[in-house]
Design a protein that fits this description.
Organism: Chiloscyllium punctatum (Brownbanded bambooshark)
Structural class: mainly alpha
Shape: globular
CATH topology of the largest domain: Substrate Binding Domain Of Dnak, Chain:A, Domain 2
Pfam families: DOCK_N
Helix content: 40-55%
Strand content: 5-15%
CATH class of the largest domain: Mainly Alpha
Protein name: Dedicator of cytokinesis N-terminal domain-containing protein
Distance between the termini: 23 Å
Number of strands: 2
Largest sheet: 2 strands, antiparallel
GO molecular function: guanyl-nucleotide exchange factor activity; small GTPase binding
CATH architecture of the largest domain: Up-down Bundle
Amino acid sequence: MFYHVRDMTYSLIEGRSQILSGTLPKDELTELKSKVIAKIDYGNRILGLDLVVRDENGNVQDPDLTSTISLFKAHEAVSRGINERIQEEKVSPPFPGEIPADISCQAFPKAGASLPASVTSF
């Protein structure tokens, strides 16, 4: 998990530098901002942090100006999207050529059942 979070952090730093450079066309800038926001929301979920509800432009919604129902629906939609992404990652191997495996402990049968592992093919 550490390496996954580290790679996401590097990706966010790279995205931030591209956004701040001011060299991207408006459509690419909008797309990059939405990707960065999605990564932040995903990272917050896997780290057990709060989910920030945003509008369609990526701005944080003000709970004092937004109705409770609207906040709930927006939170539910973002949460559903993040859960789908997490499920997709569980189904597919994290790295190309990696095969998920389940290794049983035969040496110490009373110590535990099995260990999740992965085998990489080259």
